């Protein structure tokens, strides 16, 4: 039996990823073994950093091999609980503890989660521009590189436009992508929760002629059960409903699963309590024959954690992946094998990812390319 491995230090490292900022967490044990986690949150880096540091103070001396006990201490300590900031801090520390356990035992994390149920991880990519002409060219280039599934949707600035203009732009974009890629490439449409249920129904109808595989986050996370009429409309067109990137626990997802309002759950390994909680979310979703597709627009540690979950979760279907983030190759040592459609998880101990601290320190976090606010023509605040 492996002896306890007390936590000696919890450190944070923030850097620009190019499009977003990345926040990495390193947990080191008394024995000198370290593990990596990630808590990238786009706009809340400094706040999450403070939460990680405070949790680190409380967890120093805890057994790094007792990840469930540490998770319970981190999430149930004190009276005030929950929310994306704390959940992200917990997620990063939890990932790091699984990394440590795998390194100490000499096995990849997915073997600690029950072993592999597949040989590789299917991925999808983003079509990242929104001008229809450029969109079609980028989509065609992705197909040429081997991509078989891609996602696009409503750009943040569109949420401030009148609805007819939003619908027109959505049709233009989807037409450009479908014309460029043909009928055999899967298309995912993300609404980013920017619509009321009645608006989301009309968005589904606008997207339906382009045969998307799923509609993602058609309504906001504040009241996810409002997706009910949208789900009915989507399913009438043979379209699945995906949501969950802004729901941070199995308890938050339970109501939509129990009412069978979702077909694909999308917990984010950076925000939904880490590997420990996401494996429980996966099991809960599987109870309702619901697929798992982790949300993953963040950096290399988030991708590694999500890929290990994907290797072990029977109901996994596909993983979001952003290999063309400008600084991924600088920050991640020994990138994983990837052919445009499949990500191969190496048989290395732990998460199988190591970071270049010099590269991280060389580029500080900065302004991000993701909009943080939108306004209507009358000056009112719109969703982003």
Give a description of the structure.
The chain is α/β, with parallel strands linked by helices and 384 residues long. The protein has a domain of 239 residues: Alpha-Beta Barrel (TIM Barrel), CATH 3.20.20.120. Helix content is 39%, strand content 16%. The chain has 13 helices and 16 strands. Strands 4, 5, 6, 7, 8, 9, 10, 11 and 13 form a nine-stranded mixed β-sheet that branches. Strands 1-2-3 form a three-stranded antiparallel β-sheet. Helix 2 runs antiparallel to helix 3, helix 5 runs parallel beside helix 6 and helix 6 runs parallel beside helix 7. It starts with 6 loop residues before the first strand and ends with a strand. The model has no long low-confidence stretch (mean pLDDT 93).
Rg, rounded, reads 20 Å
* CATH class annotation of one domain: Alpha Beta
Q: Between the first and last Cα atoms, what is the distance in angstroms?
A: 50 Å
- What do we call the CATH topology of one domain? TIM Barrel
Spans of at least 5 consecutive residues whose pLDDT stays below 50 are: none
The CATH homology group name of one domain: Enolase-like C-terminal domain
Number of strands: 16
Series of H and E elements: EEEHHHHEHEHEHEHEHEHEHEHEEEHEE
**Helical fraction:** 25-40%
Report the sheet with the most strands, covering strand number, pairing sense and barrel closure.
Answer: 9 strands, mixed
Query: Which structural category do the helix and sheet elements fall into?
Result: alpha/beta
Mean pLDDT: 93
What is the 3D shape?
Answer: globular
* Helix count from the secondary structure assignment: 13
Based on the coordinates given, report the CATH architecture of one domain.
Answer: Alpha-Beta Barrel
How much of the sequence is in beta strands? 15-25%
Protein name: Galactonate dehydratase
GO biological process, one term: amino acid catabolic process
InterPro entries: DgoD-like (IPR034593), Enolase-like_C_sf (IPR036849), Enolase-like_N (IPR029017), Enolase_C-like (IPR029065), Mandel_Rmase/mucon_lact_enz_CS (IPR018110), Mandelate_racemase_C (IPR013342), Mandelate_racemase_N_dom (IPR013341)
Organism: Jiangella alkaliphila
């Amino acid at each position: 039996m492996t002896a306890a491995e007390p936590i000696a230090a919890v450190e944070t490292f923030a850097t620009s990823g190019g499009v977003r900022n990345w926040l990495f967490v390193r947990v080191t044990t008394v024995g000198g073994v370290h593990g990596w986690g990630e808590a990238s949150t786009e706009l809340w880096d400094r706040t999450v950093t403070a939460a990680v540091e405070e949790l680190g103070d409380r967890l120093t001396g805890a057994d790094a091999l007792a990840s469930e006990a540490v998770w319970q201490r981190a999430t149930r300590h004190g009276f005030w609980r929950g929310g994306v900031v704390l959940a992200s801090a917990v997620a990063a520390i939890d990932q790091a503890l699984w990394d440590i356990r795998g390194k100490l035992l000499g096995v990849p994390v997915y073997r600690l989660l029950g072993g592999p149920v597949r040989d590789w991880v299917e991925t999808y990519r983003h079509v990242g521009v929104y001008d229809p002409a450029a969109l079609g060219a980028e989509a065609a280039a992705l197909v040429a590189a081997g991509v078989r599934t891609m996602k696009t949707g409503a750009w943040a600035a569109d949420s401030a436009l009148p609805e007819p203009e939003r619908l027109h732009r959505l049709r233009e974009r989807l037409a450009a992508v479908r014309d460029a890629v043909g009928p055999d490439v899967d298309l995912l449409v993300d609404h980013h929760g920017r619509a009321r249920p009645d608006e989301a129904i009309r968005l589904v109808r606008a997207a339906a002629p382009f045969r998307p595989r799923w509609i993602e986050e058609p309504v906001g996370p504040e009241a996810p059960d409002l997706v009910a009429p949208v789900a009915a409309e989507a399913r009438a067109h043979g379209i699945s409903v995906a949501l969950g990137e802004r729901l941070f626990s199995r308890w938050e997802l339970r109501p939509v699963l129990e009412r069978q309002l979702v077909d694909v759950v999308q917990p984010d390994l950076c925000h939904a309590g880490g590997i420990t909680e996401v494996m429980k979310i996966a099991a809960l979703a599987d109870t309702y024959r619901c697929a798992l597709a982790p949300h993953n627009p963040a950096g290399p540690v988030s991708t590694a954690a999500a890929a290990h979950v994907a290797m072990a979760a029977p109901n996994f279907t596909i993983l979001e992946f952003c290999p063309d983030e400008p600084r991924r190759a600088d920050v991640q040592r020994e990138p994983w094998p990837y052919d445009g459609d499949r990500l191969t998880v190496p048989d290395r101990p732990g998460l199988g990812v190591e970071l270049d601290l010099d590269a991280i320190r060389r580029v500080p976090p900065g302004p991000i390319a993701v909009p943080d606010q939108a306004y209507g023509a009358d000056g009112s605040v719109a969703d982003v």
